[in-house]
Amino acid sequence: MPLSTTNLLTCLIMTGCFLLSLFKPHCCDAKSFAEMEEKSMSSQTVANAKVSPLAGTLGEAIAEFFGTFVLLLFGDGCVATFSLFNKLPGSGAFANEWTVIILGWGLAVMLGIYVAGAVSGAHLNPAVTLALAVRGKLPWSKVLPYWLAQLLGAFIAAIILFYVYKGAIDNATGSGNYATAVGGVFYTSPKAFVGTFGAFCDEFIGTALLVGLIFAITDGRNQPVQANLNPLIIGFLIVAIGASFGLNTGYAINPVRDFGPRLWIAIVSGGASLTSYTWIPIVAPLLGGVVGASIYDLTVGKVIIARGLLQSGNSVSNAESVREVDETAAR
Fold first, then answer.
1. pLDDT at residue 329, rounded to an integer
2. What is the pTM of this model?
3. For residue 316, what is the enclosing H or E element?
């Protein structure tokens, strides 16, 4: 029997309702699907986004530059206070004491670590960088960038100090040579009665103590200093080394602390600062740092591993820096 127009419309409406009921769940999920697709695309975009060079070795090198820069500004600045003013009429007794040197360098190291600690670990010292690389705690690819940044920071700091104290330097130099008259403000040298072997041993042992104890202080399994106080403790370590081993050579215990400023004085003195002693505060600290780090890792470090001691609290060690992780933020 042929369908009337009314029946035909009724059939079409019923068919449409049936098809709509089949399609409805997909329609309801369309919004969720779109949100999932958007999140996926967003994640892919973030993953494919170009990472800033500052997030890698370049940023770490910049931190090393400024950390070492601050270290040398305060460190050699206190030496300038000690050396350039202690013979002036009316100068206070405080400027005539070795205490100025060792406290000044201790505070200088502390401040330098605070500048760069969270970014690079605040090595501020090629001996620390080399020791970490040798012990497998730093990629070798980062050694040269760190060294260059440290040297440049020390060199620029020496230039600034030279011109800040230019009046006092010229007063002390007179018509003489900068290297002869005020070289000790910028770099180290042994006492006249200290031979090459004694000077080498002094720098070697001082740096071995420095790096070995840095490894101990920043080891998260070995009673690490919490609450970001380890820069202060390492500063005290510098004071202790200066009090015990400082007077033989002036205790460089850091190749760039000596060579960076020495290089600047070489420029303004016609190379007079580059002497037969120049290699000792470079080579001895580099070797001493590796030995000090190895002794700690192969003795106390092995004992800690054997006892199965775990990381203390939420501390995270990175070279000379120890930080506490915020677990809430980490989640």
1. 39
2. 0.80
3. strand 315-318
Residue 144 within a domain = yes
Whole-number Å distance between alpha carbons of 10 and 15: 9
At 322, is the secondary structure helix, strand, or coil? Answer: strand
Q: What is the DSSP string of 76-92?
A: HHHHHHHHHHTTSTT--
Cβ within 8 Å of residue 257, ≥6 positions away: 71, 72, 75, 125, 154, 281
Domain total of the chain: 1
Write phi, then psi, for 322 (nearest 5 degrees).
Answer: -125, 125
> Is 22 exposed, middle or buried (CB count within 10 Å of its CB: 0-12, 13-18, 19+)?
exposed
Q: What is the pLDDT of residues 17-63, one digit of tens each?
A: 555 454 444 444 545 545 555 655 555 555 455 788 888 899 999 99
Is the Cα dihedral 245, 285, 253, 215 positive or negative? Answer: negative
- Token pair 């919004």 is found at 31
Output the domain CATH number for residue 58: 1.20.1080.10
pLDDT band at 184 (very low <50, low <70, confident <90, very high): very high
Half-sphere exposure of 87 (CA within 13 A, CB side): 7
- Measured CA to CA, the distance from residue 94 to residue 86 in angstroms comes to 9
Q: Which two tokens stand for residue 101?
A: 């040197």
Q: How far is CA 229 from CA 110, 113, 233, 280, 325, in A?
A: 9, 10, 7, 32, 14
Give the DSSP per-residue string, 147-165.
Answer: HHHHHHHHHHHHHHHHHHT
Structural domain range at position 61: 53-324
